[in-house]
Amino acid sequence: MNSQPKTKIMGNYQRLDVSFVKGDRVYLFDKKGRKYLDALSGIAVCGLGHAHPELVELLTNQAKDLWHTSNLYRIEHQEILAEVLTDSAKMDSVFFCNSGAEANEAAIKLCRKFGFDNGIKNPTIITMKGSFHGRTMATLSATGNEKVHHGFSPLLSGFKHVEFGNTDVLKSYLCNPDVVALMVEPIQGEGGIKLPPLNYLRKLRELCTHYRKILVLDEVQSGIGRTGFLFAHQLDGIVPDVLTLAKGLGNGIPVGACLVNNQYSGILGSGTHGSTFGGNPLVCKVALGVLKIINEKAFLGNVTNIGTLMLSEFRSRLNNIAIVKEIRGRGLMIGIELNKDCGELVKKALDRGLLINVASGNVVRLLPPLILSEDEGLKIVEEVTSLIESFNGNA
Ligand SMILES: Cc1ncc(COP(=O)(O)O)c(C=O)c1O
Fold first, then answer.
1. Ligand 1 within 6 A of 185 CB?
2. Which of 12, 242, 244, 308 has its CB surrounded by the most CB atoms within 10 Å?
3. Which residues contact 169 (CB under 8 A, 6 or more apart)?
């Protein structure tokens, strides 16, 4: 597709030949001063956009005071962040780390340790086909996508992948005493913005409670306001047993979190898990700032309103375009599935000054900053519609 610029960076990413040097709200600027509208937020990370003044102030003030100590000591901002997160999620305690994969790694270890503590020799976690949980060996083994597995055998045992959205297939697995947990994204992000049927999470909650299995929700992508709720599962009115977060929590400052409810809170006891950097004063101060802004009145309502507007505009404008298979999403997590691979649209959008992404080969994925205005949302709709129209014309 693009000729790769020659650098000393490993080739595990196919990078576009553009480098941004400045950001402002929903815009990025390259070295030549060209402006780009960001409809991706660094893959669901910069929910509050770029260079948010309140976050800049918090970060710079904290940088003058203290960056890092160690989890060998108490960290005041970490303790406050733990209070805020557990209160918001109605959960009990939290482990801080640096990324989504690490948050899921902690969740997986917790489930296995629960199995061990209960005399289960081969604890198994059910995960979903089409899921994505990260790139470490445990999280890629949990991931339900053979492309992600390819070349990395032997994978970790103890994962069983089942059809996403289907609760009927689950019952036989849940009767198996080796099965300790079920791990699921409320909306599959990397899988192509796939939404399960209505009440799916509620049914999973009921099943996990009934069969005494741990319900792990991976909200690394769908959490922190992305769907118009602080956590996507709040739409369903449920509380998981374990909840993993990262991406939007630090708005670009690396932070991940694995929250646990009361029942499973004691499983990862002293010496069982850790992180050198996790939850240091700097990242926790920023994460607290992010949550304060997202929890302000009207913030999440705005995400819902603009997301709903964008979805309905897409639906009416792309209605008669032959290559468009389905338009789906919630809040500002939007996917447009085409009937053929469309990776080339990413570069075409960039040439027009717009950042988008393609997931799963054929799904245009939009994850714009949550602070975008109605006009900016409509501008994204206009540009993406025009891109898809001309792609359709060339089909
Ligand atoms: C749902 C989900 N879980 C986990 C991850 C892995 O997060 P990270 O790249 O921060 O390790 C991602 C990343 O895209 C994700 O979307």
1. yes
2. 244
3. 162, 163
Element (DSSP H or E) covering residue 326: strand 324-330
- Strand, coil or helix: what is 267? coil
- Phi and psi (nearest 5°) for 243? -135, 125
pLDDT digits over 378-389, tens only? Answer: 999 999 999 999
Q: Is the CB of 251 under 6 A from ligand 1?
A: no
> How much distance in Å is there from the Cα of 233 to the middle of ligand 1?
17
Average of pLDDT values for 280-308?
97
Residue (of 378, 370, 392, 379) closest to 50 by Cα position: 370
Ligand 1 centroid, distance to 208 Cα (angstroms): 24
- Overall size of the chain counted in residues: 395
The two structure tokens encoding residue 171: 């019952």
Question: Which residue owns the Cα nearest ligand 1 atom 8?
Answer: 100
Candidate of 136, 190, 333 to mutate for ligand 1, largest count of ligand atoms within 8 Å of Cβ: 190
Query: Which residue type sits at 150?
Result: H
Is residue 287 predicted with pLDDT exceeding 90?
yes
161-179 average pLDDT score: 96
Atom of ligand 1 nearest to the CA of 102: 11
With 80 as the cut, is the pLDDT of residue 1 above it?
Answer: no
Domain boundaries, the chain: 20-52+297-393, 54-294
Ligand 1 closest atom vs CA 219: 1
Q: Is the CB of 223 under 6 A from ligand 1?
A: no
Q: Summarize the confidence of residues 77-85 as an average pLDDT.
A: 98
Q: Is 105 in the pocket of ligand 1 (CB under 6 A)?
A: no
Measured between its terminal Cα atoms, the distance across the chain in Å is 18
Average pLDDT (194-215) is: 98
C-alpha of residue 244 to centroid of ligand 1, in Å: 10
pLDDT tier for residue 394 given thresholds of 50, 70 and 90: confident
Ligand 1 centre to CA of 119 (Å) is 31
Mean confidence (pLDDT) of the chain: 97
CATH assignment of 54-294, among 3.20.20.80, 3.30.70.120, 3.40.640.10, 2.60.40.10: 3.40.640.10
Its CATH class, for the domain covering 20-52+297-393, is alpha beta
At 224-245, the pLDDT tens digits run 999 999 999 999 999 999 999 9
Ligand 1 geometric centre to CA of 246 (Å): 8
The interaxial angle of helices 281-294 and 53-65, nearest 10 deg, is: 160
Task: Give the ligand 1 atom nearest the CA of 247.
Answer: 10
Residue 330, pLDDT above cutoff 70: yes
